[in-house]
Amino acid sequence: MASAPRPGGRDTDRVLVPKRLLDALGDDPASAVRSWLDALPGTAERQLAAWELTLERVATPGGRRGLVALVRLADDTPAALKFPVPGPDADRERAALAHWNGWGAARLLRADPDTGALLLERLHGAVSLRSLPEPKALLEAAGTVRRLWVPPPEGHPFASVTGRTEEEREILRVLGAGDWAAQARPLTDEALELRAALPAEPPEEVLLHGAFRQGKVLAGERAPWLAVGPAPLVGERAYDLARLVLDRCEDLAAGPGPAAAARRRVAKLADSLDVDRDRLRGWSLHRAVETGLRHAAAGDRRRAELLLEFAGWL
After folding, report:
1. Quick count: other Cβ atoms within 10 Å of Cβ 1?
2. What superfamily would CATH give domain 128-313?
3. Where in the chain is the domain with CATH 3.30.200.20?
4. Whole-angstrom Cα distance, residue 138 to residue 41?
5. 235 beta partners
6. Distances from the Cα of 121 to the Cαs of 87, 107, 305, in angstroms?
7. Which of 55, 83, 104, 194 could form a disulfide with 148 if both were Cys (CB 3.0 to 4.6 A apart)?
8. According to DSSP H, which parts of 198-300 are helical?
9. Integer Cα distance of 246 and 119 in angstroms
């Protein structure tokens, strides 16, 4: 049902849940998430009315973990209205954005704990760091992620790197035992060994983005580049930086001397952010293997082979 016209803005469009989100979450018609999806258009319309927002359009194709709509405030300020999939991850995203308060990340303007709605500073969704040449993108990414690494608030709700990777260890064991993963078992074994050793003596405990990569950094007006879509946790910086090491690994694979180029990338990022090279190399290998095995289990063998090859270069 379309909402009524709002003063100062055109009629809003009907809120349609993007197909990508439906495909990612809508398999089980009896699940709580499917019920949330079914109710989402009405929830969004009520939130628009409650916050006096004018809907421009729903962002498509959008992501797989929530709906984002481009809106305008009553004073015509552009903003983004986000509905993350409800649960602990959504609560942690809200807490991290509130704690950063716009420092290195999109500013949280308003939140509704009942609906999970987040009203965010509008960024240029079509312009991420991936639009830049690789050296420039890495430089800007390093400057952005550095701002996010702050002490967590007291009584924070965030999981730890140790806790998250404990779950990943069990996944690695199961996936690595599959017949199709036989060639990757030496890398899987090394990733498991690194998972056991690296969290034993973490050098620091700071708030991390958790899913930081070039595509998660968008162009803004208030600042040139700001991060979005955190999966926040607390732990050491090398873990957060490891996902950035893996970014655009297809570019390295297509160039000369990919193994040496991968090791140079680790060294350059570690040195620019004062992170221990060996720890960054270890977490990068761990995350490459874990992500590669997940892609293989999902049927994306091409991406899986590339990530596992990247792990071998390290």
Report:
1. 7
2. Aminoglycoside phosphotransferase (APH), C-terminal lobe (3.90.1200.10)
3. 19-122
4. 38
5. 206
6. 22, 5, 38
7. 104
8. 237-246, 249-254, 258-272, 277-297
9. 31
Instruction: Let me know how long the chain is.
Output: 314
Cβ–Cβ contacts within 10 Å for residue 51, how many? 17
- Segment among 5-14, 98-107, 127-136, 162-171 with least mean pLDDT: 5-14
Tens of pLDDT along 79-91?
999 999 999 999 9
pLDDT computed for residue 130 by the predictor = 95
Taking the C-alpha atoms of residue 79 and residue 122, their distance in angstroms, rounded to an integer, is 4
DSSP 27: S
CA angle 89, 92, 96 (to 5 degrees): 140
| Percentages (nearest 5) of helix, strand, coil residues in the chain | 50, 15, 30
CA 138 to CA 157: how far, in whole Å?
30
Closest to 143 in 3D by CA, of 226, 234, 211, 252: 226
Instruction: List, for residues 280-314, the tens digit of each pLDDT value.
Output: 999 999 999 989 888 887 888 899 899 999 999 99
Residue 6: predicted pLDDT? 41
In this structure, are strands 54-58 and 66-72 parallel, antiparallel, or unpaired? Answer: antiparallel
Name the pLDDT band for 25 (thresholds 50, 70, 90). confident
Count of CB atoms within 10 A of residue 27's CB?
Answer: 10
**For the chain, where do the domains classified as CATH 3.90.1200.10 start and end?**
128-313
Q: Which of 19, 15, 23, 9 is nearest to 44 (CA)?
A: 15
Give the lowest-confidence range in 21-30, 144-153, 173-182.
Answer: 173-182
CATH class of 19-122: alpha beta
Q: Which of 103, 90, 85, 94 is nearest to 225 (CA)?
A: 103
| 303, 311 contact by CB (below 8 A) | no
Closest CA to 63 of 110, 119, 25: 25
Give the integer Cα–Cα distance in Å for 284 and 194. Answer: 10
Q: Please, which residues have CB within 8 angstroms of residue 223's CB and are 6 or more apart in sequence?
A: none
